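ESCALATION

Customer reports they have been waiting on this structure for their group meeting. Please prioritize. Original submission:
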Amino acid sequence: MSLFKRRRFPVEIILLCVRWYCKYGISCRDLAEMTQERGVEVNPSTIFRWVQRYAPEIEKRIRQYQGPRSGSWRVDETYVRVGERWKYLFRAVDKHGQLIDFMLSDRRNTRAAYHFLRKAPKTMSDCPHSSITTDKLASYPRLFRRLQREGHLAHNVEHRTSKYLNNIIEADHGALKRVIRPTRGFQRMRTASATLKGFEVTHMIRRGHCILRKSGTAGEICLVNQPFGLAA
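Update from on-call: job pushed to the front of the queue and completed.
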C-alpha cells in the first residue's frame, strides 16, 4: 500500500496509534508508553508524524460513511491556541449535532466567515441545507446576502440568529476541547489543522454519527481499518 510505503511498523499499529491519539486526547509520550506495555517500541516523535500524515487521510475516507444529516445547520466559532496565539476554529453541525464541516483560521472576521460558508455547502453538496443558525454578529446578514447573490447559498436558505438554538454546537465545542487539552496544544497551523481533522472525525465516530457494520468499539475499529483495505 503506497500510503504506508517504507513504514517499519504494520499498518494496524499505525492506525491504532492515530485512532487512540485522536479519540482519547493523550500526549504522544503517554501513547508511546502504552504501546511499550503491549510490546511495541515506538518513539513519540514517530507517533506525532503518523498523526500528521494519516489523520487527514482517515477523515477524508470516513466521510462517505456518515449517516444522513439534517438541513438545519448550526454555525459557530471557538478558539484554539497555536503556538503563542489564539486561532479560530469555525465549525458547523446539524440540529442533531452531526458534523457538517470545520475550518481553522488565523482570524475571526467577515472574510474568514465568508470562506467557511462557501466551503461548507460544497462539502455537503449531497445534503441540501434549509436554514443556518449563527450568533448575532452584525456582519452575518450582509454576508448571507452576498453569498446568495454569488450563488454559493440558495436564495431559500433561511438565516437565523438564536443563542438557544446554537447551544448544541457550543456544547460540542466543549467536548472537542476536552480532547485537545491533554495533548499539550499545537505549535503550527499546518500541524494543528491536520490533527484537528483526526479529532473531528474520531469525535464523530464516537458519537455514533457514522454507519457501522458492527456495534461498539469493534465497529469503530472496523470503520477506520476498512477504507485502508484491512480485514474487518
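Sent to customer with the following note: The radius of gyration is 19 Å.
Escalation resolved.
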